[in-house]
Write a structure and sequence with these properties.
alpha/beta; five-stranded parallel sheet; three-stranded antiparallel sheet; 10 strands; 29% strand
């Protein structure tokens, strides 16, 4: 009997050509307590032929400011209305591992799958978004900037632990959100 511990992309292709994506599936044999590897080949064309899953990305969930462009802002009431509309329309949230298994191992997704993502570690993503998503059993992916953890108007380490403990994914969104075009070699290392 084997438990899948991880799937790691060895070679990836981002175009819908005949390139192959080779995945190495690492599994642990629970009886013999040893790891075994299985190589799985998936063509980019096979992946691109599957129905795509919408991914919604949110940044700021707060009231609109006067005399501001309000780029990337959704009001709390609009966010609530959007979550209700998704739920009323039969959408189910999926997480990155679900998509990986769908595209590479042909695992079945729930009807009307959708992914909800959040960038920048903003506190309202915890106090407003996560609370609203809970009403519908939704899970999300929260991409955080390490440097902002615990600062004013940003999530704390405890908030992030709570998100993860409740089944959400917490991922990296760079160290300090500098412009990528300003990176040099040492900046890349710091950001990653």
């Amino acid at each position: 009997m084997k438990d899948i511990l991880s799937l790691a992309v060895i070679i990836a292709a981002c175009s819908c050509s005949n390139n192959s994506i080779i995945l190495k599936e690492v599994a642990k044999d629970t009886i013999a307590r040893q790891s075994v590897s299985v190589v799985i080949k998936v063509s980019a064309a096979d992946i691109c032929s599957k129905p795509q899953v919408p991914i919604l990305c949110y940044h700021h969930i707060r009231p609109l400011k006067k005399n501001s462009t309000n780029d990337y802002v959704v009001t709390p009431s609009s966010f609530g209305e959007q979550m209700k509309a998704l739920a009323d329309s039969g959408y189910h949230t999926v997480l990155p591992a679900d998509l990986e298994r769908y595209y590479t191992l042909n695992k079945v997704l729930p009807p009307k799958p959708i992914m909800l993502t959040f960038d920048d570690t903003d506190l309202e993503q915890f106090t407003i978004a996560e609370a609203e998503m809970k009403k519908y059993g939704y899970k999300g992916v929260f991409f955080i900037m390490n440097i902002s953890i615990g600062k004013r108007n940003y999530m704390s380490a405890e908030n992030l632990k709570t998100l993860a403990a409740e089944g959400n994914i917490v991922g990296a969104h760079t160290w300090d959100h500098r412009r990528v075009t300003d990176y040099n070699d040492s900046a890349w290392n710091k950001q990653l």
